[in-house]
Sequence to fold (616 residues):
Amino acid sequence: MISIFLMTTLALVACKKDTAMQYDPNVKSEITLEFDNVAGDKELQLNTGSYTNASGQTFNVSLLQYFISNISLTTADGRVYTVPQLESYFLVKEQDVASQKIKLMVPEGEYTSVSFMIGVDSLRSTRPIGERPGVLDPANYPAGHEGMYWSWNAGYIFYKMEGTSAAAPADPTGNRKFRFHIGLFGGMTAPTINNIKMNTIELTANGTAKVKTGRKPVVHFLHDILKTMGGTTNVDLAANSTVMVSPFSANIANNYVKAFAHEHTHNE
Amino acid sequence: MKHQWLSFLWAGALAWVLLGCAKSVSPAADGKFTGFVAPANFPKPVYDIPAYPVTQAGFELGRKLFYDARLSRDNTISCGSCHIQGAAFTHHGHDVSHGIEDRLGKRNAPALQNMAWYTSFMWDGGVGHLDMQPIAPIENPVEMDESLASVIAKLKASADYPPLFEKAFGSRDISSARMLQAMSQFMNMLVSANSKYDRVMRKEGDSFTADEQAGYELFKARCATCHQEPLFTNQQFMNNGIGIGPNDDKGRYDISLIEKDKYTFKVPSLRNVMITAPYMHDGRLRTIDAVLRHYAEEVQASPNLAPGLNSGGRLGIPLTANERLRIKAFLATLTDDSFIRNPAFAEQ
Fold:
């Protein structure tokens, strides 16, 4: 009798363990997408870290920030959840750890891929000011380097990296700075170049995200700035120390879209 | 405030008596606030007025902001410093604009009128939505040299603004969205559609003289593909052969980075053109005669010259002396006195 009881309990427990991953798509739970900025096999350290790009030029980074937006997640069984658009704009800043952890509420499920935009979509870039809350409000950027909006070529700077390198030409103040300010959404009524980039990252190889009430999965992405500097196009900081509204910006955007990778997932 | 409103009413009544004709099209001119009214001879506005309607309190707040020098870093320059009502909101007499500490810009301040119908702003179309327009001069180092964040902080710290934001938006909260929406409300009301031309078109009892009529026919045949009625711009980016300026301003190309856009500029409206000298994106032509001589005799072969200005190697638009006089007579019918004198649009 006791043994039967034990057996069933065991069976139930075992069973419970198996079916613990029953997801209820009608219930939302938390997931965190973490963006960890690195330089090859080193952690990125603002100002103090010294790195070498594919052109053999040594540089350091004083500022790195970029927009992640229009996020959607896909489950193993092909369900796609798209984060409501207005809740889907995030500004990841290297100098602000909290900004690197994007917390979302998504339907329970085992997620096998994550898609996101690096930048701000063209539609939002043309909306009235009342439809640009939070990180999209140009009044919310501190004055100076951290601005992510061009007023004269009205649109967001999608990706901004600044630093110094001995290879960069000296500016009038004697500093050898490089500045990549990459934007351009394709134009409102007449076309311009378009640097909006979408990225879809598969999670299966390094760990799917099991979103379920009671758990707090964290998907850990790496963003490797060495790949922003080199990849499809190896950036020569002597020739391209300032890249803003110029055709070369497309090369940097084509580099950084490939600079994101999935490292691992915590499913606690 | 009450007092101000009363004097505003008085001024409005006076203008109404003086101008007589300031009927339906200039909704605020007679002192009664009727909101935004699209003129009968205009298309549907581009700005989403139904979603963001103009209210009296919003319009008045926007007007105060437009004329407030606190929008500049050292509190010396307002939007109204460069956009003067009597000159259809251009910077009368300046080829390129004068900003803070007398710093010079590279472009001529265009007329501010009928902006609710514009698909883009600036000579190069760099701004795509009217709400976002004020940020450009506020943050331009040669114009107001301020930051939007700092302007918001100044307004929040002021005594006069919180109650006005409450009146316009229901609470004392001051945000960039509210500030820019109020400014759009003011700018959307700047409708110029009561010139003699408009009254003739709407058959309100006016008629063209023989010269004006002949000028209108010439204009339709030679100018209107670009300066399209009723806004007198097709809102495209074109090169009209004035030649590359000394500062090598590439116009639309600086925004789009597309080769065919090099040295093209937005076709400007010709409404109120007689009172908006000097002309062209850098104000290089001082008179209408110089403009007409340009089109007739001085169009230069330039990269991306508009095809309409090159017919089989003959550059420009043929115009005899007589034809020029007639076109000038027609252009003069585009001056809208009730617009440039409307007391509701003036600094209070």
